[in-house]
Amino acid sequence: MRYRLGVDVGGTFTDLLLIDQQTNQTVRDKVPSTPHDPSIAVINGLERVCAKANISPKDIAHLMHGTTVATNAVLEGKGARVGLIVTAGFRQILQVARSYVPGGLAGWIVWPKPEPLAKLEDTIEASERVNAFGDVVQPLDEHRLIEDLKTLKTNEVEAITISLINSFANDVHERRIAEIVADVIPEIPISLSSKILPEIKEYERTLTTVANSYVRPSASRYLQRLDHQLKALTGELQFHILRSDGGLMGVDIASSAPVSMLMSGPAGGVSGALWIASQAGYKDLLTLDMGGTSTDVALVQGGKPSIGRETTVGDLTIRSSSVDVRTVGAGGGSIAHVPELTKALRVGPQSAGAVPGPAAYGKGGTEATVTDANVVLGYLPTSLLGGEMKLDSKAAFEAVGKIAEALSVDVYSAAEGIIDIVNENMFGALRLVSVQQGYDPRDYALVAFGGAGPLHANALGALMGSWPVIVPPSPGVLCAYGDATTNLKAESSKTFIRQFPDTSKEEVILQLRDLAETARSELQSEGVRDEEIVQSFEIDLRYHGQGFEVTVPVKIEEIDKNGLEVVGEVFDKEHERMFTFALDSVHEIVNLRAVVTATQNTVEAPRLNPGDGDPVQAERFESEIRYGGKIYNAKVYDRSLLESGDIIDGPAILTEMDSTTLIIPEHFGTVDNFGNVLIRPNTQREA
Questions:
Q1: pLDDT tens across 384-422, in order?
Q2: Which residues contact 51 (CB under 8 A, 6 or more apart)?
Q3: What is the domain extent for residue 510?
Q4: Residues 643, 586 share a domain
């Protein structure tokens, strides 16, 4: 068994990438997704990609899967009915929540507060109390609890969350309640806050654990069913799930803690972009994943994606490590419209989706979309997906023509307006992860992928000043690349509130090492050998009296040598970078964290044959395009025939099975050894 398979399930297509671990050669494919049961598309795609590669499914040794099952359960409101057990006096914890309303001042007037994931009638109180130091100050009243549990049983809850005040300091009561629940309501999934998020802040801990219970039944059923189907088809292959922070985890862990895979899909794209770009020598990146409905952007610095401590899905914001991805409603299917009141062109966030889709898809869509604008301007070929999908240019012109009529301009000006606006929307998202975080985008390369990303990347590079713009091979299935090339990962954390004068370097080091052992045991249970594990550490710090903390990376060796002061210096610099100032105040530790990663993955990107710099062998024909109000003749290339070292002068269009790349006038693209197309302005061309 010499093959590994990456599978990424999207709303419209399921992407697959098969890698030969001996030769590093790849086979890619796309199959229609099956939203009612995503496992059907996974199995169909596996069989199809194996047939395409002329191998047996039993030749696959490792399958890595990015999934949106948990995400969709939250977005569609189709999770489980959750029973919640809290400490007496905290029954309304989810209803009180935090005083935050999105949308600015007007949000207080028009924002409908979302319903909590656990209803008040499904919440019971446990008579118990543990103080902040972990001391039991009131024993658990087990008899009363058993009586109250009958209410949850009568309500037919499908999952139970146990979240007690200060359980992060001592989980003895949570564990005992779990035992009682298992007796009173057998076989119901139980989530403990002391296991899911053993950190201070009872609301965030409760909400995160309730979210875990909310998605757990559906996610667990899906993963266990798919695991059984895969084993029946392939034998004893390794099956792992992509975490929100870009690592992998086993099926059992993912089934019990699915809250850690809420951002599984976007994390795959960032992991894939980092993998291919780092092999080409670029480690400071902005990533742009543009699909049919939305665009995800993220920042990677020094070969490491920016990891946030919060994950936001719809109206739900929970405490779980994830790649810091920002999403904007700008995609190939984003609908253009001209409101009657303002007569100003708008694009998105509404999307035509897969059905009916853009007018050019010929499935009944009549509203103008970004895809239709690209067709009108000549940027898209007459067919997509290797010829499987034909485009209806007449329908695209008719749809964009309605926008042109409403604006009293010609159809080409309307199409360029649509493209300019959607580019500005994505530009704003990219600024959120760069400029507004204190990073200069001119210091980063821009990696574009997704079905629509390479069409818009060159223009966005010009807006950001981010060069080169990197378009990796197979950009439409790069999320599957990320799934197939990442590694197992685990983390362990705990709250440890100490001001620097009240603790010592020895105490902090001991706590960090204990956390590392806990995290290492998770990887070891997946068969990872001790010498294959790399560990790193983080500390959440604040100035004493602050209401928030900042996460900083730390090294045990430096703490042991220089004391905790070295951690304070790192925090001061990060605080100054983020907020432009540092304080002369006592530093306070809030949380400690250990992160461990396996180093088993040795997949290398395949290399192209060297060429002579002239891409003539890939040239197919010339096509008329419009850009900046001017008409150009652009050469159209078959990207699969390009060779290393080829230089493509813009304007040019590169076509491939899963995406189309546009190089705009006054720019050029260079093909590197790994098949990446690096786009730069002509002003950067070597003399």
A1: 555 556 788 899 999 999 999 999 999 999 999 999 999
A2: none
A3: 489-598
A4: no
